[in-house]
Amino acid sequence: xxxxxxxxxxxxxxxxxxxxxxxxxxxxxxxxxxxxxxxxxxxxxxxxxxxxxxxxxxxxxxxxxxxxxxxxxxxxxxxxxxxxxxxxxxxxxxxxxxxxxxxxxxxxxxxxxxxxxxxxxxxxxxxxxxxxxxxxxxxxxxxxxxxxxxxxxxxxxxxxxxxxxxxxxxxxxxxxxxxxxxxxxxxxxxxxxxxxxxxxxxxxxxxxxxxxxxxxxxxxxxxxxxxxx
Length: 229
What we know:
Blueprint: E1 9-15, H1 23-33, E2 38-44, H2 50-59, E3 64-67, E4 88-92, E5 95-99, E6 114-117, H3 121-129, E7 134-136, E8 151-154, E9 171-174, H4 181-188, E10 192-194, H5 196-212, H6 218-224
Parallel strand pairs: 1-2, 1-3, 6-7, 6-8, 8-9, 9-10
Antiparallel strand pairs: 3-4, 4-5
Helix pairs in contact: 1-5, 1-6
C-alpha cells in the first residue's frame, strides 16, 4: 500500500492534547505485522489550528487520520460527512471523508435498553449507533438512572467518581483509559466491563481497515496494549 512515489504512507491522530494516546503504539504494531510501509504519528492540534491540520492531511499525502478530543464534532464541518461526530478521516484523491468507528465495540452486545452517559463527541457517536438509548449528562438530566439498563456507555471524562452502580446482567462500556472508578465498581459488583482499551482496539481495528483495505491483525493490536488475545 504505497503511494505513487513509493514513500511511506502516513496516518495520524488529531487531538489536543494527544501525547497520551496509545493509538500510535497499536497501529504501528499492526502495520508491522502485515509488512505495510505505513506509519502512524501523533498530530497535536489546538482547536484554532484544526482547519489547517485537516487541509494539511491532503496536502501532505496522508492516507487518513483518527480524530479525538476535543475535535470530533468540530471536524464534521471540515470534511465530507453526514455524521454529527467523526473519529476517522479517510483521504482519497485529495478528498477528506469523515466516518466514525467509535461505536465498533458494540458489535455483538445486547442493547435493548441502553443508556449513554456524556455529551461530547464520543457520546454523540454512541447515540447515533443507539438511537433508542436514554441519555444523561451533567448539562442535561443528572444523576443517571440505569435501573433496567442492559448496556451502559460511559462516555464522560470522569475517572475517580463512581457515576453509576451496575450489577450482574448489565454491561458497561467504559471509554476512558486507564480504568475508571466506575469500571472497577461495576466489575466488583458482577457486571461485565469493556474498558477503554477494549474500546480503543475495536475502533482502531475498524479505522485500520478503512485506511488499508486489509483485515486488521486484532490479536497483535491487543498485544501492543497489553491485552490478552
